[in-house]
Amino acid sequence: MDIARNKTANFIRTLLGAVAFLALCSSALAGGPWWDKAWTSRKKITVDASASGANITEPVGGATVLLRLYDATFTFASAKEDLGDLRFVSEDDKTVLPHHVEKLDSLMGEALVWVKVPDLKPGAKNSFWMYFGSSDPKAVKSEDSRACYDADTVLVFHFTESGAPAADATKNANVAENPGTRAEGISGGGIGFNGKNAVNIVASASLVWSANAPLTISAWVKPGAPKADAEIFSRKEGGSSLVIGANAGTPYVEINGQRGAGKEALAPGQWAHFALVCDGAKTTLYVNGELAAAVGAGLPALNSNITLGGGFTGDFDELQIHKVARPVGFIQLAAFSQSGEKVAKTLTFADVEQPTDWLSWLKSGTFGVIIGNLTFDGWLVIIILAIMAVISWYVMVNKVRYLNGISSGNEVFMKQWRDVVSDLTVLDAGGDPEKTRTLGGRLTAATAKKIRHSSVYRIYHIGVEEVRHRIEEDRKRGVERGLSGRSIQSVRASLDGGLVRETQKINKLIVMLTICISGGPFLGLLGTVVGVMITFAAVAAAGEVNVNAIAPGIAAALLATVAGLAVAIPALFGYNYILSRVKDAKDDMHIFIDEFVTRMAEFYKEKKD
Q: Domain residue spans in the chain?
């Protein structure tokens, strides 16, 4: 009873192990973590600050990165039309990153998206994930422009408004007094200046500047015809002023009349990135991420309106004002990643990835159609066949392990047996049963462990016990008659009984393989026939006959037959292999029994004579 319970427990543990193994395989196939299974596609986006990319060696910190999505970098057909399912997740695949869409043109396949990426490392490849393609009703727009900028960013104008003044993308809600002239910007819309018009930004609490306070101003500028002292950005109050401009095309910065000018003129008709950084005692102007001009003076105290385009001819876009002195790496990242020849190196888009776990694989493509059209009876048949497959593999694996143990154990035992078969006196050790069982002491503890699965040793054990018992009885009576013919027959009968029991153990559960071999295809065929019947009945009820209506149902029905064959074919191969191994094990026992009986009869017959 205990043995039966142990075997049942082992079988249950094996089934549970098979389930755990399938779960582990599913996890392994997934190719890594996936933020949310409701999203079917993702891309890895890399901000490459290494030497092979933008080669930014100065600190960057957190930044809001502009992504240009078009057909080469994004599959618009896989996402919702309004990009409501667009999500950005950090490299750890856990933290959702804030984003907002500046421009979307689904018809032309173009979108401009800003993503807040924390802690970008200089000289390294910084990655995050872009997820899209969700059918989940909860996958609605989650963009938030205010969350895209930190507390030190006090103003961001994208100039996407048409016929309306620019609105601040940050939480400070700064506004312009007038809309300006609409122009094509570096990213989406921009404003244009003809040398006479200007745009005024209303003073606010967030735009109050203290003397020598830290400050960063950045914008994109496309100059037209060069003019003398053309002011691009200016703020003046009383005798204090801050001006960023271009004199005959050469950029300059001027604080309270003290000017620092660059050495190279801007190319007319080409976009250039301007960035002004005040760090207290010094003010530096960068153009396209490179040092252009500097003034040995700090920021003046100002609280007046800001003017864009006083006497400047050209286009203007993407104005940002920060109340901190941003590091050089931050300035360079903006210049390199938002436009120009370095964009392709700075921002790289990997190929689209999809979940590779088995559930997602089954749901996609052709298999998705087949699985989606399976009827209840088809699922029932496939589940039964799956259970049969687990049982057949359990039997095959355990039976092969058992036969391997028998084979290796028999080999070790027969090697020891050959050493004593020529002189069986070592077995007749004065009635010592332990000597007899251990082949005269040759079976040490280590050797005994190796032959514990040997069926031949168990047969030998039965035989020597029978012989020892008879010889011992004779010795107690003071005679040594040896083994008579009837005693030999009795010993052989005991050995044959042991052979039958060993054969039963070897053959146990093999019948399950024959059931799987013969029953699997028939169960699969039953599922297919019922599935086809249901498909044709549904077509008849609908009153419409076409290939598109019939094909999915028949394909799903045929899946049951495939499942039946998938159960039967491995079971058939395993069954034939196991039968050959069982025959070898039985032959070993038959040969040993014949040899053992002959040797015992000969040895004890000689002693009697």
A: 2-32+358-374, 39-143, 153-323, 375-609
